[in-house]
Amino acid sequence: MATAEPLVPSGPAVVASDLTRVYRSATGETYALRGVDLTIGGGTLTVVAGPSGSGKSSLLTLVSARERPSAGELSVLGSDVAGAPTPVLRRLRHRRIGYVPQRASTGLFPHLTAADHVRQVATWRRAGGDEVDDVLASVGLAARAGHRPASMSGGEQQRLAVAMALVGRPSLVVADEPTAELDHGNADLVLDALDGVARAGSAVVVSSHDARVTERAGRLLRLRDGVLSSETDRARETVAVIDSAGRLQLPPALLERFPSRRVVVEADGHHVRLRAPEDPS
Ligand SMILES: Nc1ncnc2c1ncn2[C@@H]1O[C@H](COP(=O)(O)OP(=O)(O)OP(=O)(O)O)[C@@H](O)[C@H]1O
């Protein structure tokens, strides 16, 4: 059945410029994202990888329009996330953005069955009832449709969260470590389902430490210390990212060559060379 919302975004799904996220608390400030420039289009499975604390979840909550940036610009499906009224962002999330939280149980209600959860989201997205059964089957939950969260395992709850995110094929799907609790077989089911909606034109963004996920990426973004450090495309070419302020993050192995954290930059024809200064003092 056709959905009421466009399946394929007309422009990029996400455009971010100098994106910054700061968490403030009584004990101080944490810069989770420090000026990320990024464009994410439809039709690709984009994977965000990086060590624990590098800012993956912070980035995903922003690109899914669940939180507003502390600074910088962020457009999601044509809406300005910093400036749009809260009801506009809520409607955008309900209708056009599927989101799988890192802890699936946080998005589930104890009194609803698996099918009720998916049906509720299908209503927001004006998807047909037949899609509810199809999407539950696609993540291996057909036999659990009548179960409530309390009688589902952590992995089943995670697959239910994926089914809720995918029903109605929203324009943008954002999943925070969606295979973290899954065995190989179920991880493959979930990745096939995510890849399927990407191939159908949705923009799909997944964070993961898991090699099973990074191997499937159409585009792999690496975050380090809140900075987008490198990007690998489908042809497996990896490029370093220079942000709008001209900053470039060196891979850790190269960084070790410059213990003084000072570098001489030399341009020579088509090449730019970095070398340690003679006298780093
Ligand atoms: N609500 C919060 N309040 C304060 N600091 C936070 C909050 N959420 C995240 N942080 C901090 O922001 C930084 C980035 O965290 P984030 O959860 O985005 O990283 P991550 O790459 O998703 O980590 P993980 O792989 O462990 O989930 C970390 O230093 C983290 O401690």
UniProtKB/TrEMBL annotation:
> Where is the ABC transporter domain positioned along the sequence?
14-250
SpoVT-AbrB domain ranges (all copies): 237-279
Domain of life, source organism: Bacteria
Q: Name one Pfam family in it.
A: ABC_tran
Keyword ATP-binding among record annotations: yes
InterPro entries named among the record's database cross-references:
AAA+_ATPase, ABC_transporter-like_ATP-bd, ABC_transporter-like_CS, ABC_transpr_LolD-like, P-loop_NTPase, SpoVT-AbrB_dom
Molecular function GO terms recorded: ATP binding
Which keywords, in A-to-Z order, does the entry hold? ATP-binding, DNA-binding, Nucleotide-binding
PROSITE patterns in the cross-refs: ABC_TRANSPORTER_1, ABC_TRANSPORTER_2, SPOVT_ABRB
**PANTHER family this protein is in?**
IMPORT ATP-BINDING PROTEIN (PTHR24220)
**Would you tell me the protein name for this molecule?**
ATP-binding cassette domain-containing protein
Record the organism: Nocardioides oceani
